[in-house]
Amino acid sequence: MSEKLTVEKGKYEGKRNSLIDVAHDALYIAKISSYAQGMALLKAASKEYAFNLNLGNIAGGWRGGCIIRAQFLDEITRAYEENSEMPNLLAAPRFAKVVNGSLGKLALLIEIAHSVGVPVPAMDSAYDYIVQLSSPVMVSAQVSAQQRDYFGAHGYFKIGGLDDPRTMTTSDGKIREFHTEWMLPERPEREITK
């Protein structure tokens, strides 16, 4: 495939040491995000199947007898010991502080990687997960709904805006549904509420 596809690749013009510093912080944030996603899955499974999982003990167990064995697991264990009911690992003050202070470095490293033609799907996913959690609106769900409308005229709901996640409703409380004619140049939208 490489001879069939041509991807424009730039050259990194920045300073090597600056890139190393950015990469260090970006990798740490991506690691936090990855563990947060994993712990969120365990928490959801525990709730769904009434497993009563102790996430702090799980992290501690991994530290003691698993291939992971990262020192980072001690921080996760402490976070869950301090608040076993936190909604997500990213809500732990120690991790929230790091993410809030350095998320831009993860974005920058992704941008640099893309500009030189290096795919970084795990970092993209880590960044997108954090950005989605920080938004009051499930933007990715909105995009998916519009894609479904484009491909199959399934319709979509509208929200009040990025700062107003409420779904638009009629005066009698019905959710308003819309369809756009995506292939027409003016892309007319019509309401299809039933």
UniProtKB/TrEMBL annotation:
Domain 6-phosphogluconate dehydrogenase C-terminal: from-to ranges: 1-183
GO biological process terms on file: D-gluconate metabolic process; pentose-phosphate shunt
Keywords recorded for this protein, A-Z: Gluconate utilization, Oxidoreductase
A family per Pfam: 6PGD
An annotated Gene Ontology molecular function: phosphogluconate dehydrogenase (decarboxylating) activity
Annotated SMART domains: 6PGD
Family matches, as PANTHER family: 6-PHOSPHOGLUCONATE DEHYDROGENASE (PTHR11811)
Family membership noted in the UniProt record: Belongs to the 6-phosphogluconate dehydrogenase family.
Protein name (database record): 6-phosphogluconate dehydrogenase C-terminal domain-containing protein
